[in-house]
Structure formats: structure tokens, C-alpha cells
């Protein structure tokens, strides 16, 4: 008998204001009003998504010393938004990005344990790190953390958080009026942790949560990030969405799990992706082209180029050819508050010139070509089939998807693509559990032996 088809896992990312959304569209709504978060979360729940996903922005991004207002210019704090959403949703998971570099374990463990209680076991923490002194300047310790220490701190942070989540036994609260006993003797352990990053002695104030440990998501693609995910995470949020690259990433990360006593199913790999739908593939392609032109404005294209070139290119025509000058060897500091993906500007420029010449692209067209996230473009049936192909081919376990409009961009996907996945037998028609761990097929975190 053949193996049953793998089930597709889906997260719904809330879009902000950046080069992947179209804030200028008349249909676009606020990225701050609660109604927008509520709409997307409820749409994801209607589509039986595993979880709603909220990213984080800790500092306004700057370009050439000024706030770049076409990028993220306003995003509320993650945990209050997710807590509010817990009251207006019933099943969809609630995942939030919170930085392990600029927070402390006791406080963050308490906050996520609280969210897990408020939501009935639907909390997830996307663990991210930072060695960016520009962002660090917002915090008491500033940019104190060396790049090499990011995951050292994050690993110990997660270790301490788990100790705190495990401090209450599952049956700690007895609430027996006859015996005059509310909590069993010895049921709340004191956590004493002394390590290179943290030295605490604490008795957690929040009881054992519905999931025991909230789901841990990790967003990192470096070697250190992959190893951290293999050791600690329940899911990894990745940029590797092309089929061949996804298969290589999938094999690499899943292959690391055995060293930590884990099975392949213990870690879900979920690339980011967007989508554009049409009644025909040609119509979808035309829509995709129009959307990308809205996302990458002329000034946005020049700013993207300046990030690589490391110099002022405002005199160049966005609809003209690439600059005839070479990038500065060190382009650091032109754009701050955004992760640098171009470690070798000269090599990037050579590659971009080759692409521009081969395809006869202007500056703006080139930026559209090389900076877009992976997008599924086609009819709903074609998009569903492509998503399923990635999952069944071990390129991923599913996707974290986002539309280009806030907050209604997911509506069309839920109305048309989800039924296609359900018809193929690879996506649920109803939730079969109540917690996010249930949705992801992870099982509940196990209690420690005392």
C-alpha cells in the first residue's frame, strides 16, 4: 500500500506596511486598528489554518539617515494583540515574534504562559535574535551582544523558559475547601538557574498551561539558526520556498534532529510565500505584475539599490539602466533596522548586472525580479496543486502565507484555494483538536520527571 498523503500545514501572516504589501490600494486598511487583526485572524480560522502569525518591528527603519516611510512605520506590540485575538477566536493558533536578545526569561515565559491560558492552548512564540546595535540602542543594554553570541543567549533563554513553564506540576491546584488546601505541597518548584547569560531564582506565578510549553517557532536560515531549530524548535520559518532549494533545506534541517533525540515529525518546516490568483494563469500573471509594480515604487527601487551600492543613487532614473559606478566595498549603514542579506555588495552587483543584461531590465524591473518573496501565481487549482507538490516532495511541511492587502488579502485564498486542498485530501475540513500542538500534530510537551 502507498503511504498516505502528508497533510499541509498553513500559517497566516499579518502584512504590515512594506515592499510586500500595497498600502496605497483603496481597499487597503489599517495595520494598527484591532479590526484589521481580528479580520485576518477570523479569516484564517474560517479557513482552518494552523495559526495566525504576527511579526515584530522594534525600531523604525532608516535609509540614509532618515525614516523610510514606505517600510514598516507602525506596528503595535505583539502580545497585547494576540491576547485580544484570543477573545474573538476559538481554534486558530496565535503566534507572535518576540526577541530573545532584548527581553528576559521570567517576564517572557510568564507572558506566553498567560497567553496560552487565555487562548486555551493556542500560543506560539517565534524566537528571534539580534546583534544589531541600531535596534539595541532602544534598550538598556544597547548593542551589547556580539553576532556570534545571538544563539548562545537564545538557547539558554529557551532553556530557562522551559524550566519556568515546568515549575508547576499539572495537578498543582486542588482547590479543596474541606481540606483548606488550594495548592499541593511541593507542587511549585523554585527555579534556580545559573549560566553564562542568566542567573535567576524564581517561583513562577502562572500555573501549568494547556500545552505545558507554547509552540516554539524559529526564524533563521544560517548554520547556527538551523542547529538552534533542530535542538529547540517545533517549527522553523524559512525563506527557502523554491522546490529544489526547499528540498535541500528540508533534508539538511531534518537530518540534524536525530542528534537531539528527535524524529522528523517533531519539527515543521514552513517557508514564507505570497500568492496571486486569477481565472486563468495569464490573468494571474498580469495581476502579479501589476501588484509588484505597486509594491516596488520608483523611490523604493532606488532605495533597494542604494542598500547594495552603499551610495546616493537618487540621480538615477528608476526606469533606466543600472548605475555605471561600482558599489562601495562596505555598504553598511545605508539602511538600518533591516537585516542585511548582501554580505558581498560587489558580488551581488555583478550578479544583478548579469540578470539585467540578460533580461533587458531597468532598475525598477530588476528590483522586482530579485527581491520578491516566493509567490504562487495561477488559478486556485494550480496554486493548490503547487503547494501540495512542495509538501509531498519533502520541500516543506506547509507554508506561512500572506496576501498583499491588509487585512482582506487572505479572503480569496480561503474561499478558493482551501477547498481545492481539501478536495485533494491534504487539508482539514474541521479542526480535530483544540490546541496549536494538536493542529501541528506535535503532541503536548511532556512534563519533567521529579
UniProtKB/TrEMBL annotation:
The protein's name: Oxygenase
Domain of life: Bacteria
Family of the protein in this entry: Belongs to the NtaA/SnaA/DszA monooxygenase family.
Ubl conjugation as UniProt keyword: no
Pfam families, A to Z: Bac_luciferase
Binding site for FMN: 97, 147, 151, 222
NCBIfam families per UniProt: FMN_nitrolo
Domain Luciferase-like: 27-391
GO MF annotation list: monooxygenase activity; oxidoreductase activity, acting on paired donors, with incorporation or reduction of molecular oxygen
Taxonomic placement: Bacteria, Bacillati, Actinomycetota, Actinomycetes, Kitasatosporales
Protein's UniProt keywords contain DNA damage: no
Sorted UniProt keywords: Flavoprotein, FMN, Monooxygenase, Oxidoreductase
InterPro entries registered for this protein in UniProt: Diverse_substr_monoxygenases (IPR051260), Luciferase-like_dom (IPR011251), Luciferase-like_sf (IPR036661), NTA_MOA (IPR016215)
Amino acid at each position: 500500500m502507498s503511504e498516505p498523503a502528508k497533510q499541509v500545514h498553513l500559517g497566516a501572516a499579518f502584512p504590515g506596511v512594506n515592499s510586500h504589501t500595497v498600502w496605497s490600494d483603496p481597499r487597503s486598511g489599517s495595520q494598527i486598528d484591532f479590526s484589521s487583526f481580528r479580520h485576518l485572524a477570523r479569516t484564517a480560522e474560517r479557513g482552518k489554518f494552523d495559526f495566525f502569525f504576527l511579526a515584530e518591528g522594534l525600531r523604525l527603519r532608516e535609509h540614509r539617515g532618515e525614516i523610510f516611510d514606505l517600510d514598516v512605520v507602525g506596528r503595535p506590540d505583539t502580545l497585547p494583540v494576540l491576547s485580544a485575538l484570543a477573545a474573538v477566536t476559538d481554534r486558530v493558533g496565535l503566534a507572535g515574534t518576540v526577541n530573545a536578545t532584548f527581553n528576559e526569561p521570567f517576564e517572557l515565559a510568564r507572558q506566553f504562559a498567560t497567553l496560552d491560558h487565555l487562548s486555551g492552548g493556542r500560543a506560539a512564540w517565534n524566537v528571534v535574535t539580534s546583534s544589531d546595535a541600531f535596534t539595541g540602542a532602544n534598550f538598556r543594554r544597547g548593542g551589547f551582544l556580539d553576532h556570534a553570541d545571538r544563539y548562545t543567549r537564545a538557547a539558554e533563554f529557551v532553556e530557562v523558559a522551559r524550566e519556568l513553564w515546568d515549575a508547576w506540576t499539572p495537578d498543582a491546584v486542588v482547590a479543596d475547601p474541606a481540606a483548606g488546601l488550594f495548592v499541593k505541597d511541593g507542587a511549585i518548584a523554585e527555579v534556580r538557574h545559573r549560566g553564562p547569560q542568566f542567573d535567576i531564582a524564581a517561583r513562577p506565578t502562572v500555573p501549568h498551561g494547556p500545552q505545558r510549553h507554547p509552540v516554539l517557532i524559529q526564524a533563521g536560515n544560517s548554520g547556527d539558526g538551523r542547529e538552534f531549530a533542530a535542538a529547540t524548535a517545533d517549527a522553523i520559518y524559512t525563506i527557502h520556498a523554491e522546490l529544489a532549494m526547499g528540498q535541500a533545506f528540508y533534508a539538511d534541517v531534518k537530518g540534524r534532529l536525530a542528534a537531539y533525540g528527535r524524529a522528523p515529525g517533531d519539527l515543521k518546516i514552513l517557508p514564507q510565500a505570497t500568492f496571486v490568483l486569477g481565472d486563468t494563469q495569464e490573468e494571474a500573471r498580469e495581476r502579479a505584475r501589476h501588484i509588484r509594480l505597486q509594491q516596488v515604487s520608483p523611490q523604493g527601487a532606488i532605495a533597494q539599490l542604494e542598500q547594495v551600492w552603499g551610495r546616493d543613487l537618487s540621480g538615477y532614473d528608476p526606469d533606466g539602466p543600472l548605475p555605471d559606478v561600482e558599489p562601495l566595498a562596505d555598504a553598511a549603514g545605508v539602511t538600518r533596522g533591516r537585516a542585511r542579506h548582501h554580505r558581498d555588495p560587489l558580488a551581488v552587483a555583478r550578479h544583478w548586472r548579469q540578470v539585467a543584461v540578460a533580461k533587458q531590465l531597468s532598475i525598477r524591473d530588476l528590483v522586482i525580479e530579485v527581491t520578491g518573496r516566493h509567490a504562487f501565481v495561477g488559478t486556485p487549482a494550480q496554486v493548490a496543486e503547487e503547494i501540495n507538490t512542495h509538501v509531498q516532495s519533502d520541500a516543506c511541511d506547509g507554508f506561512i502565507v500572506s496576501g498583499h492587502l491588509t487585512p482582506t488579502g487572505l479572503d480569496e485564498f480561503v474561499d478558493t484555494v482551501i477547498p481545492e486542498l481539501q478536495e485533494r485530501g491534504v487539508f482539514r475540513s474541521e479542526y480535530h483538536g483544540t490546541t496549536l500542538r494538536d493542529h501541528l500534530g506535535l503532541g503536548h510537551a511532556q512534563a519533567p520527571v521529579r
